[in-house]
């Protein structure tokens, strides 16, 4: 199984495989990669005659078989794409009705896909924590399986910078760091926000102020603000932020997970600082945006090691209560905030 970066390198080198199975949360990146394979393999003049696309929720095996077996016209290759192929997911209920039979037929067929055909099938994860299904893993070693996991750190920044360049817009390094720290790590959203920012700034330079004017605060910003108020012993302000997050529909368990993660990162940064690690080393080790790392280093100054460890202990106890004891989750989160603020 390879990742997005390895696939990009292979495409650049013209190392195009016969069969691809793709999965991940970023459908935009999958579509981009498919388009790059298409451009490398088939002349645009004959694309319509050598390119077949099927909806994974409706496709029958005979459709895939006939499309793959068709001899390309005025081209060495033809390409067959099955998008939103939910039958590749273990939990394929609600997708293709014949998913069990379809997946068995495809398993038998993929070793025999003609050399003139490039078959690509992909499905999109339901959430960012989902992993490749057992069905997909069974294809590994038989075909090229690609997982499109979230781009992080410098990979994410490079991709965002490339998108700005595609739009003909320059962005400074500081502004790029800031934009990446503010925007949600989802390429569909990234493209939309970049489009809006380019239209908003037109011929002007992109600044921190222009980014602030357009981008809505994301959950990471909210959690940072919540922990910041806790560090200042302002539980009433932290509870206000909590209410705003929950009003957006974020569940108590998810909020607690993000708060706990924040303290774990602070613990790692605190240890790194005490061991004389540089900011650059911390960014690389923890896969953080440099701007976010700066903010968290400053935040760590307000917490002693003892307070961070105590905060993590309180978070773990609250997690057990949320999972095992009945009661109002919102009230339990408010109690958590008060307990963290008075340490």
From TrEMBL:
Q: Which GO terms describe its molecular function?
A: DNA binding; DNA-directed DNA polymerase activity
What range(s) does the DNA polymerase III delta subunit-like C-terminal domain occupy? 221-339
Its EC number is 2.7.7.7
Catalytic activity from the UniProt record: DNA(n) + a 2'-deoxyribonucleoside 5'-triphosphate = DNA(n+1) + diphosphate
Q: Which domain of life does the protein's organism represent? A: Bacteria
UniProt record, GO biological process: DNA-templated DNA replication
Gene3D superfamilies (UniProt xref): 1.10.8.60, 1.20.272.10, P-loop containing nucleotide triphosphate hydrolases
Enzyme class at the top of the EC tree: transferase
Family of this protein: Belongs to the DNA polymerase HolA subunit family.
Name of the protein described by the UniProt record: DNA polymerase III subunit delta
Name the source organism.
Clostridium acetobutylicum (strain ATCC 824 / DSM 792 / JCM 1419 / IAM 19013 / LMG 5710 / NBRC 13948 / NRRL B-527 / VKM B-1787 / 2291 / W)
């Amino acid at each position: 199984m390879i990742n997005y970066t390895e696939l990009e390198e292979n495409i650049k080198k013209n190392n195009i495989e016969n069969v691809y199975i793709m999965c991940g949360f970023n459908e935009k990146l999958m579509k981009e990669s498919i388009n790059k394979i298409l451009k490398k393999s088939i002349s645009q003049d004959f694309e319509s005659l050598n390119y077949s696309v099927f909806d994974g929720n409706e496709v029958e095996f005979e459709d895939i078989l006939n499309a793959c077996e068709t001899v390309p016209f005025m081209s060495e290759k033809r390409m067959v794409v099955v998008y939103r192929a939910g039958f590749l997911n273990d939990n394929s209920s609600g997708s293709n009705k014949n998913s069990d039979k379809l997946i068995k037929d495809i398993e038998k067929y993929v070793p025999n896909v003609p050399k003139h055909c490039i078959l690509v099938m992909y499905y999109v994860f339901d959430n960012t924590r989902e992993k490749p299904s057992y069905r997909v893993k069974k294809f590994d070693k038989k075909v090229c399986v690609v997982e499109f996991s979230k781009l992080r750190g410098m990979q994410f920044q490079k991709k965002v910078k490339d998108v700005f360049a595609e739009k003909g817009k320059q962005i400074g390094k500081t502004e790029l760091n800031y934009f990446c720290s503010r925007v949600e790590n989802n390429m569909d959203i990234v493209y939309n926000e970049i489009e809006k920012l380019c239209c908003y700034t037109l011929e002007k330079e992109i600044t921190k102020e222009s980014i602030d004017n357009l981008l809505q605060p994301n959950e990471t910003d909210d959690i940072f603000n919540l922990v910041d108020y806790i560090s200042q012993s302002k539980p009433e302000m932290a509870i206000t932020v909590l209410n705003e997050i929950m009003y957006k529909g974020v569940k108590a368990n998810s909020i607690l997970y993000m708060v706990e993660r924040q303290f774990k990162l602070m613990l790692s940064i605190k240890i790194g600082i005490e061991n004389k690690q540089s900011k650059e080393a911390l960014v690389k080790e923890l896969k953080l945006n440099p701007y976010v790392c700066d903010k968290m280093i400053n935040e760590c100054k307000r917490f002693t090691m003892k307070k961070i460890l105590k905060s993590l202990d309180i978070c773990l106890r609250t997690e057990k209560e949320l999972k095992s004891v009945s009661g109002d989750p919102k009230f339990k989160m408010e109690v958590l905030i008060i307990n963290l603020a008075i340490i």
